[in-house]
Prior knowledge:
Elements: E1 27-29, H1 51-56, H2 58-61, E2 68-70, H3 75-84, E3 88-91, H4 108-128, E4 142-153, E5 156-158, H5 164-172, E6 180-190, E7 195-206, H6 212-220, H7 237-240, E8 243-247, H8 250-254, H9 258-275
Parallel strand pairs: 2-3, 2-4
Antiparallel strand pairs: 1-3, 4-5, 4-6, 6-7, 7-8
Amino acid sequence: MVLGVAAGSTYTLLTCFCLASRSGSFVQRLHFVRTRHSASFSSSMSQAPPATALVNDPLVQLHLPSPLILGSASFTRKLILKEMGVNYHILVRPINERSLGNRDTDKPSDLVLHLAQAKMDHLVSEIQAGRCDNDLPSQNEYIILTGDQVVTCNGKILEKPETVDEAKTMVAMYSKHPPSTVGSVVLMHLPSKLTVAGVDTATIYFKNEPNDGLVDRLLEEDAPILSCAGGLMVEHKLVKQYIERIDGTEDSVMGLSKKLVLRLLTELAEKLAAANGQ
């Protein structure tokens, strides 16, 4: 999300509450552990990753199938997984998020879990129906990750602003009411459908009041504020001067908590071992 850097956006390593920088169905391939056939609707690297990269992949270390299937178009989630050494393959099948949940009455943690699970259910149904065959690595089992994130501020749930004026209204609240990011992760193993899920939060404190001029300057630099929950990129050079501190982790603000992902991968590996009598 971006209250932070754009769950997604264009930056060197901007922290965002961006849930997804772009919507749409697309596939991107980073390489995986075993030899795969190239999918016709993907961009595949010409060479496999170094052996050291494979050894350091948390999925490989946990004896889970690799690459991870990432059901998200978020630029920042890709950055975070790369930092973690996770080999991944992007497969996105969008849903109408606005039609799900109740932003007025749902707890933020419940809402993001509900949305991430809905994304998972839709993606899995597409895979099982054979509508993703050309976009998947050729293997017998997969670990799939979906997620969601919202910003909360002054008792309200904020998603991606629909207009610049709405983004400015959001930003104006932040010095008086510190915003928090609430992000979920759902992991599922196919074909067993064993699933684990969790939520992580972070709070951002602003020392100076962001103003309308900040949003305009971000737009001048093509910052994707309308693609980010909360409408603001926390790690952008123009925003950092306003930040006093972040309670939580930067990767959580960016849309994917490394600690949460590693914990859930471990839980899933333990569940699979137990199911296989190991």
